[in-house]
Amino acid sequence: MDIRDIAAKSGYGVGTVSRVINDQPNVSDRARERILAVMAELGYEPNSNARYLKMRSQTPVAVFVMGVGNRMFDDILGPLQAALAREDEQIVVTYLNGDIDEVRAAIDYQQARHPKGMVFLGGELESFRASFHEIETPSVLVTADASQLGFANLSSVTIDNVAAARSAVGHLLERGHRRIGIVGGNRASGQIGELRLRGAEQALREHGIELDYERDFEPCDFIEVGGYEATSRLLERAGDLTAVFALGDVVAFGALRAIVDRGLSVPGDVSLVGFDDTAFSQYSVPRITTIRQDAARLAERAAQLLLGALRDGSSATHELVDFELVERESVRSRVLLAK
Amino acid sequence: MDIRDIAAKSGYGVGTVSRVINDQPNVSDRARERILAVMAELGYEPNSNARYLKMRSQTPVAVFVMGVGNRMFDDILGPLQAALAREDEQIVVTYLNGDIDEVRAAIDYQQARHPKGMVFLGGELESFRASFHEIETPSVLVTADASQLGFANLSSVTIDNVAAARSAVGHLLERGHRRIGIVGGNRASGQIGELRLRGAEQALREHGIELDYERDFEPCDFIEVGGYEATSRLLERAGDLTAVFALGDVVAFGALRAIVDRGLSVPGDVSLVGFDDTAFSQYSVPRITTIRQDAARLAERAAQLLLGALRDGSSATHELVDFELVERESVRSRVLLAK
DNA sequence: CCGTTGGTTGGAAACGTTTCCAATTCCTGT
DNA sequence: ACAGGAATTGGAAACGTTTCCAACCAACGG
Q1: HSE, side-chain direction, 13 A CA sphere, residue A139
Q2: Does B237 touch chain A (CB under 8 A)?
Q3: Nearest nt to the A55 alpha carbon by C1'
Q4: What gap in Å lies between CA A235 and CA A227, rounded to an integer?
Q5: What is the spatial distance between Cα A207 and Cα A178, in angstroms, rounded to a whole number?
Q6: Which of A103, A335, B153, B197 is the 20 to 30 Å CA partner of B18?
Q7: What's the confidence (pLDDT) of residue A338?
Q8: Which residues contact A64 (CB under 8 A, 6 or more apart)?
Q9: Which of B91, B283, B285 sits opposite A92 (nearest CB)?
Q10: CA–CA distance, A171 with A177 (Å, rounded to integer)
Q11: Average pLDDT for residues A126-136, to the nearest whole number?
């Protein structure tokens, strides 16, 4: 069934029918009413391919989730989809784990279909420096800072990861901790781990401590098992740690387990701070002190930025949203002994 | 840039170019080679809208996730997308929470775009009985049993939820528990909660216990906060419970917190069994005894079923995959006193 | 040398829309 | 009653493919 069938049956021309479909002006109420009635009667649905072909509008917005298993991204995805759906934009999601070639292939594949827009959640973007500069499709990075990466053509939404990590580690330092280990982040997770690490380093330095990467830092993927194994290794070689800062809640969750499995208690023996404020840290035993970044808000802003670019062609922007340290039960104060 | 540009530049006709693009026979090697070269040189990408328009093939596979926040679904989504991507099928995801009208609107919306296929994760399908019978688009239900729901036209993949729940509660009973509370499941979560509840009921009955729905059961959404609140209420009114069976791991995670917040210990005072085997139960403190259903396998089978219907028009099937009770640390045996 | 066969090839038609332009109708003020 | 403008309308062209059919060519057997 065709737009022509509707035209014929309603007694109007295809042009008029098309105008009705697209809610355009210059259609008499009588015509609109009649056409709508016929469409309803025949159960007509416009063919989206023909439509998109003509309008040279494109396939849906492509979303890349780089880091399967990072619950934080799952929390962002729902609100993102909802916000975009409100404006009638679909998303096509591609889940990727770190492997660079796989990521590149996936991006090429999606680019080839000329998506209207693109959204990147997490991931290591550095190695796409070359190709990313040429992206003209409206795109937004969530959870990574496009301007810092040097992509002037891409928008982005993040919290200030450096400041947030600094406040997390600062919290530990204020509570008297001096031997602080750090877990999480690696090449595949890219900038985000790096920034948080840098923030941690700064906080330590402000207290006159130089981070020993070999001993007190252990990288890992943002998944539970990564956090578990990394923390086990860390504790193995640096048994005197009194606190651990996990670069993500998923990691923290694994870390908590690892600490307990060594027969230590949180926060009794080791204090723990996470990052993201996912359900993990809210409901685990003990509840984990963490940095809240509001997934819904991040998603909402990302959607607005993308929509802006889509609709008005507004240019690339970097946007910061607030974070907050939320104190829970996983940090214990240490009395500092006089030296 | 056009297929015509390629034709012109290569010196062949558009028909031949099209045949090359689609890997069809009846093209000389010389022609194929030349055309491929020109395509590469010009960086040509066929327009998928024009293509689909002509081929009357359709938009991507639509996936509905009914129950935002149920981590089990997040675990399925990645592998599902990967399996489909291997066969060059895209998915567009819609996240929904329970509200029936919202769900109906979303399904209508997607149906109108004539997706190639549809996949439903979870959700309450009962109220779609009327409309679901008319679905001709190849579709598969993951986590719900189409045949039991009476949808002969839809495929589905599940574990045997009844048997699994029975073995979970059976496990508790064997360990000497007699006062067992149940949390999770509600109208919006549909069949899945019902089936598990039924399994639990059976196990109890086999031990001569009749489930008191008013006292020992508390429904809730499959999210952490739901589990927390439901369990709090349950414990409030039935303080003598020695074990809790949560109908999903997310719920179990909230339940664990609720139990601890009442000053009770798991498994010291109250034993806990979950369902799904997500990362929650694997890494929480204590680790939670649960029913493993293999998300990757579920996803893989769902993809195959859908692909089968897409490619060979194979008809709707219901498939069962294995489950397994995995014993961890959240259940303690009770010595039964002689009565 | 010619009719036949089978593999190549070109090009027109069709897919179902939107958009533009010209034509028509309807008002309005005089 | 009529000119002039605005609102409405119809229809052709275009979007970028695939597909079908007719045409071509080379090889081959008689």
Answers
A1: 27
A2: no
A3: C18
A4: 12
A5: 9
A6: A103
A7: 47
A8: A93, A94, A96, A103, A106, A107, A110, A118, A119, A120, A121, A123
A9: B91
A10: 9
A11: 76
Q: Tell me if A74 and B71 make a contact (CB, 8 A cut-off).
A: yes
Binary contact (B257, A77; C-beta < 8 A): no
| A6 phi and psi angles, rounded to 5 deg | -65, -45
Among the ranges given (A68-72, A203-207, B301-305), the one the predictor scored with the smallest mean pLDDT: A68-72
Whether chain B has a CB inside 8 Å of the CB on A93: the answer is yes
How many residue pairs from chains A and B have C-beta atoms closer than 8 A?
107
**Type of residue numbered A237:** R
| Whole-angstrom Cα Rg for chain A | 25
- Please determine, for residue A185, whether its predicted confidence score (pLDDT) is greater than 60: yes
Q: What is the pTM of this model?
A: 0.83
Nearest to B335 by CA among B105, B185, B143, B176: B176
Interchain CB contact of B31 with A (< 8 Å): no
Chain A nearest C-alpha distance from B263 (Å):
12
Say how far apart CA B325 and CA B320 lie, in whole Å. 16
- What residue type is assigned to position B170 of the chain? G
A323 touches chain B (CB under 8 A): no
Q: Is A106 near strand D, with its CB below 7 A from some atom of it?
A: no
Residues of A in contact with B103 (CB under 8 A): none
What is the DSSP code string of B190-201?
THHHHHHHHHHH
Rounded to an integer, what distance in angstroms lies between the CA atom of residue B274 and that of residue B251? Answer: 8
Query: Chain A within 8 Å of B229 (Cβ-Cβ)?
Result: no
pLDDT digits (tens, 9 = 90+) for B255-294: 999 999 999 999 999 999 999 999 999 999 999 999 999 9
CA-to-C1' span, B33 to D28 (A): 28
pLDDT digits 0-9 by tens, B53-98: 887 766 678 888 887 778 899 899 989 988 988 887 878 788 887 6
Helix (H) or strand (E) holding B130: helix B129-132
- Alpha-carbon separation of residue B220 from A237, B190, B193, B331 (angstroms): 44, 11, 10, 22
Residue A36 tokens read as 């709508």
- Cβ contacts of B253 on chain A, cutoff 8 Å: 279, 283-284
State the Cα–Cα distance between residues A271 and A274, nearest whole angstrom: 10
Specify which residue's alpha carbon is closest to the C1' of nucleotide D10: A13
